[in-house]
Design a protein that fits this description.
alpha+beta, 3 strands, single chain
Length: about 70
Amino acid sequence: MSDHEMRSDTSGKPRLVGVFEIRLILGLSRQRIHQLADRPDFPKPFQELAMGRVWLEEDIENWSLGQQPGR
């Protein structure tokens, strides 16, 4: 799946992302995503499901824009 395909949503609904998609957006490991998710400055999950936490893609992208290299 290309980066463009992952982010496009023609329905107009907010796109939800899990750890797998956040890995692709941020280019980090699953373990690092879990560490970041526990930090107070990381976006709060939109919902906690049986499969795990999900976030609004826009929140993750906005958060990543404010981060310094090396995170």
